[in-house]
Design goal:
Strand order of the largest sheet: 6-5-8-9
Shape: globular
Structural class: mainly beta
CATH topology: Immunoglobulin-like
Number of strands: 10
Helix content: under 10%
Distance between the termini: 33 Å
Number of helices: 0
Order of helices and strands: EEEEEEEEEE
CATH architecture: Sandwich
Number of domains: 1
Length: 125
């Protein structure tokens, strides 16, 4: 098992658990846009979380709301598990906008200490 928390990556095997610190100035956010089905999640599991749109091209824009600054503006291919992962500045609140196949959606996010590392509530319509 591997899970992403705001400040660390936790790897758990049969015999041991290893924790790796994440950079203080960056946060990792994993996003699974969906059209029909999703799941509730808060801290992303690299091994068990599954999104609907695996291996799909999506247009992503992530904006820091307070600064009005776009921190990600890219077209990416989702991983096999339906997620796309991004390193963004820590301690921000913002908006994720995603477009795919003529549909689009937006959702708020936070990289504060109490923010989610797994975004599964961005519905494309």
């Amino acid at each position: 098992m591997a899970s992403v928390y705001p400040d660390e990556l936790v790897l758990v095997g049969e015999a041991q658990e290893v924790t790796l610190d994440l950079p203080e100035e960056k946060a990792y956010v994993s996003i699974a846009p969906y059209a029909n089905t999703t799941h509730d999640c808060f801290f992303h599991s690299l091994t068990t979380c599954r999104g609907e749109l695996g291996n799909e091209e999506v247009d992503v824009q992530i904006t820091d709301s307070a600064a009005g600054e776009v921190v990600v503006d890219d077209q990416v291919r989702t991983f096999d598990n339906g997620f796309a992962g991004f390193w963004v500045p820590s301690d921000i609140e913002g908006i994720v906008d995603i477009a795919h196949g003529g549909k689009s959606g937006s959702v708020e996010f936070s990289t504060m200490d109490d923010g989610a590392t797994c975004i599964t509530d961005l519905q494309l319509s």
